[in-house]
Amino acid sequence: MEVFSWEDLLKQPDVIPYAKNGTGITVGCFDGFHLGHQKIFDKLTDFCKKNELVSGVITFGKQITSVKSSNEYSGYLTKSEDFSLIEKFYPQVKFCIVIDFTPEFAKMSGDEFFLKLKKIINLKYIAEGTDFRCGYKGSMGMNEIKDFGIANSITCDFIQPVFLENYSEERISSSLIRKCIFEGNFSIANKMLGYNYQLDFSDLKFNFDSEKKVFFLEKSKISQVLPEKGEFLVQSDKKEEKLFFTEKYIYSKNEIKKAVFIND
Question: What's the pTM?
Answer without folding.
Answer: 0.90
